[in-house]
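Long-time lurker. I teach an intro course on protein structure, and each term I like to show students one example going from raw sequence to a predicted 3D structure in token notation. This year I'd like something fresh instead of my usual example. Would anyone be willing to generate the tokens for the chain below so I can use it in lecture? Attribution to the forum is fine with me.
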Amino acid sequence: MNASTPAPRESPELRALIDHRYADVMAACRAARIPVHDDAGVAERIRRTLVASDFAFDVFRRQPELLAPAGLERLRASADAATRGGLLDLPADEDRCMSILRRFRHAEAVRLVFRDVNGLDDIDETLASTSALYETLLTAALRWSENSLHARFGVPRDSAGVEQRMVVVGFGKLGGNELNFSSDIDLILAYASAGDTDGSRSLDNGEYFIREARQLVRLLAEPTVDGICARVDLRLRPFGNAGRLALPFAAMEQYYQREGRDWERYAWIKARPVAGDRTAGRELQDMLRPFVYRRYLDYTAFAGLREMKSLIDAEVARKDLAGNLKLGPGGIREIEFVVQLTQMIRGGRDPALRVRGLLPALRACEARGYIPAARAKLLRSAYLFLRRVENRLQMLRDAQTHDIPDDELSRERLALGLDYPSWDALAIELAAHRTAVSAEFAAVLVPEAGQTATAPVADIELWTAARDGSLSAATLEASGFTGAVDAAEQLTKLPQAAAVRSMSARSGERLERLMPQLIGAARASASPSASLLRMVRLVQAVARRSSYLALLDEQPNARRRVAGVFSDSAFLAERVIAQPLLLDDVLDPRIDQLPLKRADISAEIARTLGTLDERDAERELERLNEFRSSIAFRLGLAFNDGRADAPATARRLAGLAEAIVAAVLALATRELTAQHGRLPGEGGGFTVLGYGSLGGEELGFASDLDLVFVYDGRLANAMSDGARPVDGTRWFQRLAQRVMHWLSAQTHAGKLYDVDTRLRPDGSKGLLVASVDAFEAYQRDRAWTWEHQALLRARAVAGDVRLGGVLADIRRDILSTPRDSSRVIAEVSAMRRRWRAERDRSDAMRLDLKQGVGALIDIEFVLQGMVLAHAAEHPAILDTTSSSTLIDALRSVGLFTQPQADTLHVAHADLLQMGLACTLDLRSRIAQRTPALDAACAGVSQVARELGFDLEGVDATSSQAV
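-- Reply from a regular --
Happy to contribute to a lecture. Here you go:
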């Protein structure tokens, strides 16, 4: 609220109270001889503060100097307590130290109230400033405690003599930098290493830090005539109240590995060092990250959250806390759960989610597409409202409360302080926000289905029969599964699988709930038996991975989606069975969040590799495989669902491959540089050329990569600058070998691509990597016409940008050489007829979509022949390597008529569509002939003949049924 906005009208009772209290404050100022000047609306601001806070009234009477000119400047100051904490000069006397700390806290807390109620801070700033205040108090109290104990026992050191300091880790809202006005502070105290103090009365570090912990808590939490400084809660530490007050890092790591529970994982999401040795604190966080964020998508987090929510609900019911702003239905905790659940599930894979604080985490979840924008907006609005109301509740009497007061006067003060005309108006908005939050929380938790939904009795009986070994194919067929012999056999074998028999009791219960649901989901799919057979294989593959079983158990949409995908696409089903991580992509198949441009994909790869705790080649290759599989899988889903056509899908798959090649080249360069050092010069001097479907941006789901490696020959004799130097020729040779090996290496997550380098100069007989001069000389002097056809689709896909430009110029120069068009067309035709004789698998009933008459290769040869024949007169047609854009380029220069271009466009798109569909169904690219397919191919053949090509030969009519 703007400071000049007038307060709503007060009741007579409230006005009398504020008048009386204002008079008391002024009397205290006069008694202390402190002048209060009513300039810039000071009186009105003091009155607004008194409306909102009894605590502020008490502090003004005790510390009237806060209303002196210097005090008012402090109250108005935008800088938080940390800027004034350095001025805290704590005396050696403990009682005086505690008094100064408490008076500092009271003064700074009143500043928070003053700025908040007068609209000088928004709720974000108030919560952050409150957190800063308590960090300042912790830092000062810890410094005093250290000095006190050092004087008695010396400085604690590890076995190497390095000084040890306590690490104070803040949790909850302190860790999230969003602390309530009167919240307790949740802390865990730790230290890095065992050892002893170096004083004359030596203590081992364990005992020393326990004494320091007790002293720290005493300074902050022990009541005195000035009250307390902070409520300190150490119950989050390992073993709770039964555990030691401070533990070394090794003991903490062991505890969380062996004993850590789900609620502790949730707690550590917000944890951060808030005092003491913050560098060591960050090391502790890194050490415990695998406990908090699991390597794979962790859908078991649902069960942990549900258990915590059940405990909270029981407490709410037992203590009648339904109206509690924090714990009650639609309260702050439910908003936190929605966001933290997303962090728990995905934070191990996506470091962008490893942020503390509700609002930053919500922004990250929304930005990454994990929480829809509409839900994020609703949760953000409700959170800010609830936190503002909660904070004002606590400011009223400096009480740690989350309950709305019962008396009318307190409710009026709360409403007016928040600029509502009445309590009823505030209550209406409060109820609306809580109702909305409850609905959103339910929407996230409702898909539990395992514990509340039951499968049809018939499906339960089918699974029971399979488990007992009595299920027959006839029984399964009678229930809607046609041709169910294999499905019945595999379903019966599943309970006897070693992975299933070794399941934990909890996973076994989950499987019992899940299998009847999967049977029902498969039956509802387009191909029930195929879907069920593949899902049984999936269950066996993930039997030891409870998180994936949890995903299918918790999410009915996931079951239906998996059943549908497994029914529609054998290829995608096999990918999921081989890499269950892709289940998340099945559940969330959007492509609007995918990086589809080369630069965006490269940035996402860099971000993905940045999530690794250790940057070694094996782990990075594995993560690259997972990334490539995820993007390609989502592209497959989009194509399979009709949300993306074949040309767009093929182009995106090529862009993905290009980015992966660039990432592998960067990784190989880094590793080679570590071994042998760098070669002189900028840019690297090495380029990877993509040929074929990669170069033509028409990659399929299972395509290999046609690559050619070229280096700057000027570096051939240069020596690298490492400890084991090699000359440039060997350096680039090893680089190319490493790129090839890593692209095709088998990892736990599969392999990236098969690589074919036979299009290099001299083919398989030539060197793996050629210099620019050797490449150019070969293309000019020894290359065959078909090699120049291949060169048409070549483009730089990774490496030195300058060198790539040089190679592009060489390509253009060679391909624009004047040629005898009739001879070119004759040679291209002859080569095509030869290829067809060797490779065409068409017959009277089926068409080879790639090699058949009028199919994709015919289109490519027509385009390549036209470019080679006419590039000298029309060099613009060399600007593209893609077939679809090349058709337009040839039409634009008059080499194709519009009908010819239209015929080729339609046939190319249809054939590409059918080819990708065959791949997704794990079929060879041979399709049953249809009138439409034969007509499209006949159109291509007609265009070829019109342009002078003879692609069919004398036997063509026998292989093209019309």
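Some talking points for your students: The CA atoms of residues 111 and 834 lie 88 Å apart. The chain has a mean pLDDT of 90.
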